[in-house]
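Bench notes, afternoon.
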Amino acid sequence: MIELTHVVKNFSSPDKHDASKSIHAVNDVSLKINDGDIFGIIGFSGAGKSTLVRCINLLERPDSGSVKIDGTEMTQLKPKELYAARRKIGMIFQQFNLMPSRTVFDNVAYPLKHMPKLEIQKRVRELLSLVEISDKENSYPSELSGGQKQRVAIARALANDPTILLCDEATSALDPQTTGAILQLLKDLNATLNLTIVVITHEMEVVKNICRKAAVMDHGEIIETGDVFEIFSNPQHQVTKNFVRTTSNLSKIENLLRENSPMVQVKPGEVMARLVYIYADVSDPLISFASREFDLVINIILADVEIVSDIMVGGTVVIFSGDYAKIQQAIEYFKSKNVRVEVLKDAAISE
């Protein structure tokens, strides 16, 4: 288990005459990550997430607070003890950090130089097979695609059989298809090796696809944490809501409303609403039932269903047409079914 308690990390002000301009990169962060979990830390640029993950292996030493891994207080280890502890924490980066003058084999072998030569050969080939890049062992980084480079970096990070893998924006330099392949590889490694994976990213899509739990950072603080499904389906903080909207087609309605698109025009008595399924089974025919039960026409303008943590979550933007009182009854019906209802336009009010 990774346990961070009241971790603080500041960086000196670039202005030596004004200490008030010091950067509070991590501000009183407490966090627990369970063994074998895939945990996401998401935040916009400058939120402090990369600094936080570097505090886990003490590449950045916290100014105060506790960093425990499996009960061991990392901040109190002597240099040799810390070096040994770090060998059980692998790390991969956005830019791969491969040595260009060394082959794929030699890049992966680099952390194993303390081992006998025959054991190194066996271990490297096991790792290259694990990340499905055995045929590239004699290639150089310049001969590889971005996804292949990241597979080499992952193999190297696993060389010393770590229990934790830290991924700092590990897919940000990759195209969407390659990103999907690398995320699937990480999920497979988590299942096969019971590897605890911490994913640092600014992309909600990455968290949605791979993580079980997540924390949202803003200005050095954790502002929201929990199961990814909970965060995605019912975000509490505005920053989190902004992240969720980047992955949902339902967010397109804001642009249509700003542009006063013909798609979002409502007639007298009509109501436009966004329906977000929180815990409801999205396969339930709620709209069909409501249309019949309340004698309404319910026109679907936009729809989106996502798979988050292997659970379907989604929603629709609809226009209710019919008797206004029955529209209100239908809205209450949806709410009773754990559907979050946000009225976007109400022609009765706007008249």
